[in-house]
């Protein structure tokens, strides 16, 4: 099998635990580290991988994963699902179709167009379309603040604006692996001392908390809507209830106990299902998977 992972993620505890679990199960793990200095040939035949797993945002890594999938190699997550959640506009439209609580969101290449929004839509949190983490976040308390925005970080030069949500200063991160869900509470790394760019600071360690039925339903609905096997959901706990901020593919799983073995088991289950599908034929497998009419 192949693990396509950026250098910055190789010391992640969940990823290291997954590698150890795969190797303990007798798998040979080929580590592929895409980077700025990497030279890769576009494959024209299937690589010698039973399955490919991707962790990171590097375009070269996603390209390798997509090429492997195009040549018939099963992947976790699927490239189409990764592309969906990284396109925050498409992601939000997909989630809106599943009756999930979402913030009002607008997008524009020229941020001065946000000045045309009604005054009661402010304050707004603005971020780059293809931002990573908290990079590029800013607060607009009104149209006069638009000139305080930093240049959009990313390749597309596109801004997203979402309604500002009041919370207690903590975020909930929902982590999903297959049908399993965990919830982690952690202090928000983002602080707004006024209009303009956010202040980003270190936070206290994440704390595992109980997943209530509402949060579990949100997590599973997001994962299934986006067709992800490994995913995370950022949730703001507002006075009106939980609101989904965004969905991410293959998150850190911080504070999730035994996340590595759980990731490994999900990937191996995906591989086994692919092997069964290939052996039996998809048409013959469908009645078994779906059950009786």
Helices and strands, with pairings:
Layout: E1 2-5, H1 13-24, E2 30-32, E3 52-55, H2 59-70, E4 75-76, H3 79-86, H4 88-96, E5 105-108, E6 124-128, E7 138-140, E8 159-163, E9 170-177, E10 180-187, E11 190-191, E12 196-197, E13 199-200, E14 207-209, H5 213-226, E15 230-238, E16 241-249, H6 259-280, H7 282-290
Parallel strand pairs: 1-2, 1-3, 3-4
Antiparallel strand pairs: 5-8, 6-7, 6-8, 7-12, 9-10, 9-15, 10-14, 11-13, 15-16
Helix pairs in contact: 1-6, 6-7
Can you describe this structure in just a few lines?
With 293 residues, the protein is α+β, with helices and mostly antiparallel strands. It has helices spanning 13-24, 59-70, 79-86, 88-96, 213-226, 259-280, 282-290; strands spanning 2-5, 30-32, 52-55, 75-76, 105-108, 124-128, 138-140, 159-163, 170-177, 180-187, 190-191, 196-197, 199-200, 207-209, 230-238, 241-249.
Account of the 3D structure:
The structure is a single chain. This protein has 293 residues and is α+β, with helices and mostly antiparallel strands. It has 2 domains: 2-77 and 258-288, Rossmann fold, CATH 3.40.50; 85-249, D-amino Acid Aminotransferase, Chain A, domain 1. Helices cover 29% and strands 25% of the residues. The chain contains 7 helices and 16 strands. The chain has a 5-stranded antiparallel beta sheet with strand order 5-8-6-7-12, with no helix packed on it. The chain has a 5-stranded antiparallel beta sheet with strand order 14-10-9-15-16. Strand 3 (52-55), helix 2 (59-70) and strand 4 (75-76) form a beta-alpha-beta unit. Helix 1 crosses helix 6 (259-280). It starts with a strand and ends with a helix. 33% of the residues are buried.
């Amino acid at each position: 099998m192949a693990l396509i992972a950026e250098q910055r993620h190789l010391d992640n505890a969940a990823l290291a635990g997954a590698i150890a679990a795969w190797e303990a199960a007798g798998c040979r793990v080929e580590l592929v580290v895409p980077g700025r200095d990497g030279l890769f040939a576009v494959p024209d035949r299937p690589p010698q991988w039973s399955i490919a797993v991707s962790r990171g945002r590097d375009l070269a890594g996603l390209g390798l994963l997509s090429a492997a999938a195009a040549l018939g190699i099963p992947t976790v997550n699927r490239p189409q699902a990764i592309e969906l959640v990284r396109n925050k506009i498409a992601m939000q439209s997909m989630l809106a179709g599943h009756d999930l609580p979402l913030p009002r969101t607008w997008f524009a290449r020229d941020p001065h167009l946000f000045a045309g929004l009604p005054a009661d839509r402010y304050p707004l949190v603005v971020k780059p379309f293809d931002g990573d983490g908290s990079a590029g976040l800013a607060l607009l308390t009104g149209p006069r603040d638009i000139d305080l925005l930093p240049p959009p970080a990313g390749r597309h030069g596109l801004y997203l604006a979402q309604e500002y949500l009041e919370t207690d200063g903590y975020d909930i991160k929902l982590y999903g692996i297959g049908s399993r869900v965990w919830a982690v509470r952690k202090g928000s790394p983002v602080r707004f001392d006024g209009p303009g760019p956010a202040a980003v600071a270190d936070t206290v360690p994440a704390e595992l908390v109980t997943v209530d039925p509402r949060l579990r339903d949100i997590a599973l609905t997001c994962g299934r809507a986006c067709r992800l096997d490994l995913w995370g959901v950022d949730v703001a706990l507002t006075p009106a209830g939980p609101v989904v901020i965004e969905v991410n593919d293959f998150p850190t799983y911080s504070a999730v106990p035994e996340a590595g073995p759980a990731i490994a088991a999900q990937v191996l289950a995906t591989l086994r299902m692919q092997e069964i599908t290939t052996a039996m034929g998809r048409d013959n497998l469908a009645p078994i998977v779906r059950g009786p009419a």
